[in-house]
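Teaching note: in complex prediction, the entire set of molecules is handled at once rather than each chain in isolation. The prompt given to students was simply: 'Predict the structure of this complex.' The entities are:
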Amino acid sequence: MSSVFALLLARESRLLFRRPAELVNPLVFFAIVIALFPLAVGPESQLLQTLSPGLIWVAALLAVLLSLDGLFRSDFEDGSLEQWVVAPQPLPLLVLAKVLAHWLFSGLALVLLAPLLALMLGLPARCLPVLLLSLLLGTPILSLLGAVGAALIVGLKRGGLLLPLLILPLYIPVLILGSGALQAALQGLPATGHLLWLASLAMLAVTLLPFAIAAGLSISVGE
Amino acid sequence: MNWTWFHKLGSPKWFYEISGRWLPWFAVAAALLLGVGLVWGLAFAPPDYQQGNSFRIIYIHVPVAFLAQSCYVLLAVAGLVGLVWRMKLADIALQCAAPIGAWMTFIALVTGAIWGKPTWGTWWIWDARLTSMLILLFLYFGIIALGQAIANRDSAAKACAVLAIVGVVNIPIIKYSVEWWNSLHQPATFTLTEKPAMPMEMWLPMLVMVLGIYCFFAAVLLLRMRLEVLRREARSSWAKSEIKALVGAA
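The expected output is the structure of the full assembly:
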């Protein structure tokens, strides 16, 4: 069973690396959204620093969501998803490998890019460990929740705007806890509480959501 | 335990017959309870010592907000029943209840805004309970949109069921995280489990209104479900004769 997991992980990584643009696009989107805010609210560094936790988190959330839109599409179109559904291995496990591979490249790259953009917004360097940790714990939840939506709408021709509509309300706890941790760090308060909450939500997401994604995929494939 | 009643629920024809018998009762009960509760609450209950008469909107706001929240749980339960036992009626219930829940959430937000203006001095504020009601409205919109987007009826119902179940697990997390974020709203005014904080003559009309709004919900839901059942079973002979009877009567 674990060999299937490793094989799938390797396959997904290879596929992702053959289309580097798909990996880079969410990162560019993330940077552009962050760059829009100083243009919109003015270049005042004090204001930008106060807003930066929220800005970074909202931009990261949207970038993750948009990168997930086509997560299952090519597998759906070439029939691999049907093979997954009928495979002897449990579908939730396969799904977890797929989402993990996606997160390892797009999510992790986002986490690594975030400190640079945060410094540009004027976030003090002492907040960076909290920023990294909160994003490390938060982005897997975002990926898994988004994958539920992506699985439900994979069969639709025009599902574009539907995914954010379904999934953004579910992202709210992660947004509150993640930007809350950063806000606390910015004010010099301990952020441990927020981070622990994020960690427990991440555990919950990793254990339960693969089943929901699997259910969504079997519905879409069965159609 | 005898489970025949449960399996009978899966039969649209049986549901159509039995719901036809229940519907008038719910409708009459809703009209009576809502009428009595509204007149009692709006005209006869004593005014609040701080808010004067403006508090009377509570008799609409609280029952509607109550229903808006429990309706989402109903969606998830219907979704679970539909997924586990493949019961078509549960699918129908889910899709018929979602718009009612969305309307109730909307009314709760509007009445809250009207109430907020004289008491808080603002009709909207980014407070925890207001915000979580708004999020609830978005969750309803998501379910309705997903149901509309998928052409195949069965897949649409199943997809909505999965979304409702994921949502209902998320609701407590959303609620607590939002509450942690910011709260100004008073704590829940109306609970059945604790001794009421308000005097009896204010509390009783509220109880009547809450019961009334649930009866109203049941009546509207049954009406919508009956129509949907007829639409789906339009090819079967019993439905044809029912439709003929309905059209003939009108």
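Point out the following to students. The first helix of chain A runs from residue 2 to 18. Chain A touches chain B at residues 145, 148-149, 152-153, 155-156, 159, 162, 165-170, 172-173, 176-177, 180, 197, 201, 208-209, 212, 215-216, 219-220, 222-223 (CB under 8 Å).
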